UniProtKB/TrEMBL annotation:
Pfam families: SpoU_methylase, SpoU_sub_bind
UniProt cross-references to InterPro entries, sorted A to Z: Alpha/beta_knot_MTases (IPR029028), Ribosomal_eL30-like_sf (IPR029064), rRNA_MeTrfase_TrmH (IPR004441), SpoU_MeTrfase (IPR001537), SpoU_subst-bd (IPR013123), tRNA_m1G_MTases_N (IPR029026)
Lineage: Bacteria, Pseudomonadati, Bacteroidota, Flavobacteriia, Flavobacteriales
EC number: 2.1.1.-
Gene Ontology process terms (BP): methylation; RNA processing
Species for this entry: Flavobacterium collinsii
Keywords: Methyltransferase, Transferase
Protein name as annotated: Probable tRNA/rRNA methyltransferase, TrmH family
CDD domains attached to this UniProt entry: SpoU-like_RlmB
GO molecular function: RNA binding; RNA methyltransferase activity
Any single GO CC term annotated in Swiss-Prot or TrEMBL for this entry: cytosol
Amino acid sequence: MEKEHQIFGIRAIIEAIQAGKEVDKVFIQKEISGELMKDLMKVMKRANINFSYVPVEKLNRLTPNNHQGAVATISPIGFIELEHLVESTIESGSKPLFLILDQISDARNFGAIIRTAECTGVNGIIVQKAGSAPVNGDTVKTSAGAVFNVPICKVEHIKDAIFYLQGSGIKTVAATEKTDQNIYDIALNEPVAIIMGSEDRGINPSVLKIVDEKAKLPMFGSIGSLNVSVACGAFLYEAVRQRS
């Protein structure tokens, strides 16, 4: 974690959250208590900020300073509201191409996906606040700086975002092996949002139930699955091919 992207100390984190800083995640020392910690918990829950309990050794590795049992990661970018992203994309006259990431948790995979998204003209990336990879130093580095060029939305629930996109005339396509339909048989040369699932579980079954279409990549090897950033690249470049 890059030092300029972190805050240490309970009161400093509380003040950062209340000031509207883009706090991605807070690491809290296990078995720590006290009134100030209770205040932090209240503020985090009110702002719906991810947190996890960790051993004190992890906090000591994150910062040499007096962390008081809490270290927060700060996003180096600002996030955009979903409604604003959709409206501005439609108003610009471009044919919308969005990417929805259903709880992809690895920062390097996230960065690689952002890089490919920037290269393929994706109008915006939509992630869920809870369970998604942070935008940290690893993300910035792996994206080769593309993270500063692609709008990113954080939403409370992926399903609500899908309903909003569908209501805005945007087709939702899930990348999943749980279908007989091939990616090359799906129309991607229209307003579309492609949904990619997490590294270990894929797309949530409740999300799969509400998408417009499902598609898979043909697989000929014995492994049966691709790294999510590679699969995402294949889907996005098929969209590029159709739109050319």
